[in-house]
Design goal:
CATH superfamily: 2,3-Dihydroxybiphenyl 1,2-Dioxygenase, domain 1
Shape: globular
Number of domains: 1
Order of helices and strands: EHEHEEEHEEEE
Helix content: 10-25%
CATH topology: 2,3-Dihydroxybiphenyl 1,2-Dioxygenase, domain 1
Length: 139
């Protein structure tokens, strides 16, 4: 992978109004891109609100915190390992309470190989999955 595609942000936290709904939504949405809940922190442990971290292994990259609705809503994009994973991400989002914000396809305006899909989460955040690899079998 070239340096231009290396991640420079370690983690981000979204504030959500409905923690249980957000936890279920992101668990389903992020599974196709290889992310799962890797840590949970109770309100007692944090001294404020509960948190859940999604990532790989022991490292959380996306955290949700039950701290009320976030305004304005934000946009977060996750790297997907394949175009099939982008499609699975999109379908999981729609099946779990998300809203279509751009179905799977090439977005040449961003990059000639930018294959992405966009889902609005139940609180209005624009969540995206992107893959820069060709379709399996097109190599």
């Amino acid at each position: 992978m070239s340096d231009e595609l290396e991640l420079s942000i370690d983690h981000i936290t979204l504030s959500v109004a409905d923690f249980g709904r957000a936890k279920a939504f992101y668990s389903a949405l992020l599974r196709p891109v290889g992310l799962e809940i890797v840590a949970e922190v109770t309100a007692e442990q944090s001294g404020s609100v509960p948190f859940a971290g999604f990532g790989r292994g022991r490292k959380g990259n996306l955290w949700i915190a039950e701290d009320g609705p976030q305004s304005p809503a934000t946009h977060i994009c996750f790297r997907a390992p394949s175009r099939a994973a982008v499609r699975a991400f999109y379908e999981a989002g729609l099946a779990n309470g998300g809203t279509d914000n751009g179905g799977p396809g090439i977005r040449e305006i961003y990059h000639p190989a930018y294959y992405a899909a966009f889902v609005l989460d139940p609180e209005g955040h624009n969540i995206e999955a992107v893959c820069f690899e060709p379709e399996a079998g097109d190599r």
